[in-house]
Design a protein that fits this description.
Blueprint lengths: L6 E8 L5 E7 L24 E5 L2 E4 L12
Antiparallel strand pairs: 1-2, 3-4
Length: about 70
C-alpha cells in the first residue's frame, strides 16, 4: 500500500480479508516551503490542499474547517 511518509511499521491488526489497521513511526516527512512553521513545527491547514481517504477508492476534499473543543473528563 503506497504512503506519503517513509515509516516503520510498529503494529498491524488484521480485521478480516481486506481490512487492517497499521500503526507506525514516521521517520521523515516531505513538505512544501511555507506549510510548516519552522519554530513550532505546526502545519498551516490553509496552505495544504488536503484530501481525505474515506475507504476503498472513495476520497473527499477538505475545504471547510472548524474548531471543536476536546471535552475534558
Amino acid at each position: 500500500m503506497p504512503h506519503p511518509f517513509p515509516s516503520s511499521t510498529a503494529f498491524r491488526l488484521e480485521l478480516g480479508k481486506s481490512r487492517q489497521v497499521i500503526l507506525g513511526e514516521i521517520v521523515f516527512a516531505h513538505y512544501r516551503d511555507g506549510v510548516v512553521d519552522p519554530e513550532r513545527f505546526h502545519v498551516d491547514p490553509a496552505a495544504v490542499d488536503a484530501i481525505a481517504r474515506l475507504g476503498g477508492d472513495l476520497c473527499s476534499t477538505v475545504r471547510d474547517r472548524f474548531e471543536m473543543l476536546t471535552p475534558t473528563l
